[in-house]
Records
---
Amino acid sequence: TRPEPGKSLIWQYDFLEGFPAATQAATRVADMMEIQVALASCNMVQQLALWEHPPVTGSAVCEYALRIPPDVDSLRMRFAVGIRDGALMSGDNLCAFRVYVNGMRVWSTTKQTNDWERYLVDLPSLAGQDVVLQFVTDALGDSRWNWAAWGEPLLLGYGTGARP
């Protein structure tokens, strides 16, 4: 990750470390929903991940409430998405991955393959603010095989000076 000129990484938040404080919910009924932190293997590449298997109907939501330090000038989110090995995704069966910040969708994709896809997403500044960040998955087909995983998600804060 290359910050803007004159800015350096001054803060980061590891969503996997912060998982015990996160809330988990289903948008409808939680039947067959599973949200946890564990090793995930996608196309034979293993890494620590947030597993977020969506329920039979509706979406799975893993929500984090945090405060962005006031000296953070810009925010980026780094993560990977994958469907865990062994899932039988075929035909029109897809899994939706979405990220929301304060109720606004800031990123989304659909996925059917097992390989990890890596992303670096610019987020609004939000310096000094309380933020609600949500990881959301939704079965767009047969939910039994939507073995969704968010690989090593981090929130990266950049600023112009070193923190005291």
---
Amino acid sequence: NFYKDPIVNIEILGYSSRVVSVAGKVAAPGLYPLDKPYRVLDVLLKAGWIQNSQTVYLRRASDGKEIKLDTIDLVRGATDKDPYLEAGDTIYVPDPEYVYIQGQVLRPGPIAITPGMTLREALAAAGGVTALGSEKKVSMTRGNAKEVDAKLDALVQPKDVYNFKEKLF
């Protein structure tokens, strides 16, 4: 029940010895083959894009150098800020940075920061103020500093804590 002197044809459909690693806050982390020249954006799109992070880190396998990339530059098509990948490179997408909204808002809690985000935009992401809340009575705590009044058009910074208070009437 064995073949004597069989003739076998092998066809190689692709090589996957050249890979790049994708880790962190992407939909599908893992190893991605470099079967043609890819830029960082190309592989991030294959990995399901990023989840709320503003930065991406590329660690070169050749020299261990780490390059910080801005996601806005990547999506705008700035080819000078979207390098080609080399075999063994690692792309890492860190956790997003947050601002914290509390008090009289519909959905208090952490809000992922986007580039150029204002307090008004963070408030909208938190669902807006409740019927008892006031957009004019909001305070901010930044780091270990004491609580100060905040303006809705101010830019938010990571780890800021905003407290929307009740209106008087």
---
Amino acid sequence: MNTSVQAPTSPGPRSPDAPRPGADDSGQPGELLEIAERVAGWARSGEDVEVYVSRGEETEVRAYDGDVESLTSATSAGIGVRVVVDHKLGFAWAGSLDPSVLGETLDEARDNAAYATPDEHVQLAVADGVPAVAVDLWDDELASVPTARKVEMVLELERQTRAADPRIRQVSSADYGDGSVEVALASTTGIRASNRRTSGFVSVSVIAGEGASSQTGSGFSVGRGFEGLDPGRATADAVERAVRLLGATKGPSGRSTVVFDRRVATTLLSVISSALSGEAVEKGRSFFAGRLGEQVAGSVLTLVDDPTDPRAYGAAAYDAEGLACRRNVLVEKGVLQRFLYDTVSASRAGTASTGSAVRGGFSGTPGPGCRALTLAVGPEGYEQDGVLGAVGEGLFVQSVTGVHSGVNPISGDFSVGAEGLMIRDGVLAEPVREITVASTLQRILQSVVAIGADVEWLPGIAAGQTIAVGDMQISGV
């Protein structure tokens, strides 16, 4: 059993783990929901209780040099309980759903609430009448796939990648992973929610070339189940990314238009997302603070968080407090429209929750955060080649380093190491490395000149799509 006395607010965005209301996919009340309702029913007079329960299974296989290097299969289950009494919050969790543990966890949360500091904004979610959008996130066939087939897939992934190009010197890793999770939530404030979802992936990393001039690349394929995975796509992506950088030299210095690869754009949007949290704004930890309704980006940019899009890895019908997820337009034609809130952060801001609570599972408490960020596609409908053609001359950034130390979502400072290829006459040209790309997040948003239609959903809270940003500082030779 693990317990803690909770501060009035929780830290920033966590990994999404969203429930779905009412019943499981068969239409019948689920076992987990029955457990959550039973524990919530033990609430005493004068206290509000929220019960979050989950269980899951996952499998991971790694191949190396023609053999299985590791194979793990794990299950987990647990409960997290929040108790609010006189605006004091107590939280406790346990990694078990054993009947003997349920009451003990509630008692621990109740005891912790007694020692917490009162805060008028501390409260549990209450249904707000927003209807849920049905999102199908479950693959029935995944559970029936034998482990031997999963092993076979990852071994074949390594074999085909090794043979894909004579310049591939080594396959650093080839991985298969899948998981399923079922979640239920019930509270004394009337919330009843349950959900289940599956996911799977294959990934491969390679080294091309020899010695100091060697280059690395990685490729992925993700899906809701086994049959949706495409090892060939992962192989082609990894090989192309490594091989096209062979012979890279130090890049030039100056100011230039920069085209960010889809995966780099995902990283960029993920950093920006932390500044769109209402909690971060309230704490003065966002470069967007005080700018609601202002032009914060170029008119070509519309940024949306839409967890009801089933393609998104973080898709969900309901958020981590049991409120219906909804499409939130954050920036529209460059104008900052709203921030994201859970119940507590919304109360502090004097507004309503945007259905944007996320949490890392039964051992965590909710906080506001993005689940499925994406940019509206430009009117031209450009794929990556179209963006390159529109730019004409510039730098294509394939990967970046130093994001955690070089990008600050509070001040907006942006300075990262990069590698990629020069753009000449609208096509990719010579590869370059050891470049620093610098600006500020504020200036980047104002300087977006093209947004690709090549949307790619990978694990994380933001979609990848090619983005072109004008007038960035490049430091190379």
---
Amino acid sequence: MTGSCTDADRERFLAVCREVTAAPQGEYSGGEEGIGVLREKRMHAAIKRFVCADSSYHEQRPVTLSDAASDGDEKKRKKAKKYVADVLCGDEIYEIQTGSFWPLKEKLGWYAANTDCHVTVVHPIAIKRRTIWIDPASGEAVPSPRLARAGRVADVLPETVYISELVASGRVSLLVLLIEAEEYRWRNGWGRDGKRGSERFEMLPTALADTVSLELPEDFRELLPAELNDTGFTAAGFAKAMKLRSRRSYLALRALENLGVVRVAGKKDRARVYEII
């Protein structure tokens, strides 16, 4: 696991955020036209431009292994190219995923089966996040006096389960962006303040703190607290040490098994006991 963010990276990210935030709604994708661009959120657009400033590399279809066998038949080539990459630079694909990794599972599997490309999944985690509450009636925006719970790199583990086998194969790696952000939410939920069950309007990035690459088993191993190294641990012990709720803890543990970071070492009563490899 490596953090390789430089001051120049932070300045460039800040400049992109300012440009994207200042642009009118729907006009912050750098003049791009393509699949999904019209529905693209500002967070996604900012990260894509940070990853690659040249928009000619955005929204591109990778060359497939079957292209060589099409013998110049343009119709066959178009049919073979099913997915569009967020960023395609040579044989490197960058997929920006701001939410769950589940929707990526089929797409990344297709890349692995049909191209020679390596894929980097770029995922932002907010280590500082302030909620801005919008009144649906007046449009008034009021910032919360307190910051939301800080995100951690380890928060990516439960989502990694959906693509863990591809990560283990070396065809896919993760790039986590540790960012600061402002989350705009409508006060349209229930309760006296309208906050519970409220709807998110948009999340805007404001700064980049660091970047962390997760490629090898040892990178993921570094995400585990030292207390798990001492002895075997159960799923319940893992959840407590990782400060994860039960389902997310289960997904994280499953991902680590698929990545070859932990394994079942035995049983204690009826609970499985795991150990770090």
